[in-house]
Amino acid sequence: MSRLPGWLAGLGAGITRASQRLDERRKEAVAGDLAEEVVVPTPRPERIPAPPAYAPAVVAKPDPVSAIPWGMRVAAEAGWRLLVLAGTLWVLTRIISAVQLVVLAFVAALLVTAMLQPTVARLRRLGLPRGLATAVTAIAGFVIMGLVGWFVVWQVMDNLDNLSDRVRDGIEELKRWLLDSPFHVTESQINDIAKNLSDTIGTNTEEITSAGLQGVTVMVEILTGILLAMFSTLFLLYDGKRIWQWTLKLVPAQAREGVAGAGPRAWRTLTAYVRGTVLVALIDAIFIGIGIYFLDVPMAVPLAVFIFLFAFIPLVGAVISGALAVVVALVTQGVFTALMVLIVVLAVQQIEGHVLQPFILGRAVRVHPLAVVLAVAAGGLTAGIGGAVVAVPLVAVTNTVVGYLRVYSQEQALLATTAPPGATVVEAAPDAVAVPEGAPGPQERE
């Protein structure tokens, strides 16, 4: 009896060890099944024979990106960005061409507003309400422009019969001058030129008629554009500030402060350009008009008005208006009077180019002559006479905006660096930013 408890204890320990061994084998079997499911046997690669000793060594190919020269990679990066910009400009040009009448009318309204807005501001300072000041300025401006147009038409129609007689006399005088000139022109050659001109007019009657019908369409478009420009001018004069504030809301928030500062400076540049151009054109018209009046050229006043209007087309306008005055003097008063008119026109234009424009416009509108030529050519090709008129003020405004934004970005970059507390940008780094005349300082940003 004394051995029975010891035997029972040994039996229990053996059963426990057996159960532990069974559990361990069960875990090993489960782990083996999982390994067989996960591990996928891969086929053994075939043995590749070594190349013979006489075979040339193969150099590993470099990465294609590293194989391209750095300059070519830079050119490619810049090229696709330029393509995107060119495509954007092309789409923008197509859109502007589709609504050319609306765009030109609005730009004309901006130019007229820039000319009349100082008058509205002056009337407001005198105590007039905004609506009354706008109405008085707009009505006075439109009435003056309408009276000038009516006066030109009246003068042309009133002197048309007399002008036609004097043109015939002038042509006869020019014919006699050519016969007596050293150019050896014969009367038969002159008659052949006149006959060819008459035949050309007779054979192109349909084209002339269609051109006349097209001219009627152009007149309708011009009247529509004038009405659009008048309404736009009224709203810009009355509510221009709120329109500008609404436009700023369309700008992304990060760029809004810079655009808000560039806008008033662009408007001052446009105002200076318009008022300076009007003053220069008025001086040209007065002096050339006085010259051709004392030379007894017919329609001196309408010609002076044409000179004033064509002065708004840079470069080309002065040549066209001067040539028109010379031609009228040639066919009505003869060669000597035409030469005198040419001298007067050239003298006034030289004074304008070297004295009036630098003195009146000054540094407010700083545009390189090459930029003026290219802008006028591009504007004329894109939108005709209207494009040539608005090209130069557009370039002047763009120049002002780009210059201000460049200084503004430099200012923000310097503000991001470490500076003494309370110091301005110019005080912290006076040599880092060259602020041009008229550009805002850090404390006068709008």
Structural description of this entry:
The protein is mainly alpha-helical. The protein is 79% helix and 0% strand. The chain contains 14 helices and no strands. The longest helix is centred in the C-terminal third of the chain and has 48 residues, at 369-416. Residues 423-446 have low confidence and may be disordered. This is AI-2E family transporter.
Over the alpha carbons, how many angstroms does the gyration radius reach? 42 Å
Question: Main sheet?
Answer: none
**Sequence of secondary-structure elements:** HHHHHHHHHHHHHH
Summed over residues and divided by their number, the pLDDT gives a mean of 75
**What structural category arises from helix and sheet content?**
mainly alpha
Count every beta strand, where a strand is a DSSP E run of 2 or more residues.
Answer: 0
Q: Give start-end ranges of low-pLDDT stretches.
A: 423-446
Distance between the termini: 112 Å
Estimate percent helicity.
over 70%
Shape descriptor reads elongated
Strand content: under 5%
